[in-house]
Amino acid sequence: MLRLEGSTHLRQRLVCSTLSGRAIRIDRIREQDQNPGLRDFEACLLRLLEKVTDGCVVEINETGTTLRYKPGVVTGSSSLVHDCGTARGIGYFLEPLIVISLFGRKPLQAVLRGITNGPGDPSVDVWRTTALPLLRSVSGAEGAFSLKVSKRGAPPQGGGEVRLAVPVVKSLLPVALTEEGMVKRVRGIAHSMRVSPQSSNRMVDGARGMLNKLLADVFVFTDHMSGPEAGLSPGYGVTLVAETTTGRHISAEAV
Fold this sequence. Notes:
By secondary structure, the chain is of the alpha+beta class.
């Protein structure tokens, strides 16, 4: 068993442990903090890993400052449903989930519920427009990845829902991103939930007014949701993605 200390890089530690099959023990998790131990969103991540693996064993002491994790076999799932809570965005859980599911026994079909667009974590729009194209290129599975936003959720109450599909791959191609290139086009999406639709239009006008001074190929689409699809809290924001001449995607967002 590999022994580690502290709460830093918890997701990376769990991913490496799961893929290598080596058990880990993490001590002194926020031991000197006023609120010591694992946070609720970290416990939620552990429950998610239990759902996509078979034989996983998680042991946490009474204070939450010590974690023992024995990884299981990544099985994948065709009907996974998980509530990510409202402490962190869905993007926090997408990163380890997708990496692990690539090497499962069968493809993953998952429904994740929580905050789709919020500060602190990459939004589902960033994942869909930047991370998934990179994964398609290094895995060779062009049409197998998908991330669809069924409902949008903003903090503090969330209420969003996304549908994720991840294939199984045998190997990944090396990533070479040494040439950034020049920006040739910009695409974006301005979303709004439970606010006036004019909020999205104003964000589009502001983004295009600035970017059109630099290049002409700029399109920012609007995505206004209302009713059950708008989640439980009002919110709005914009995500911009610049595509370069070398095929790179550079994203920026504000919520």
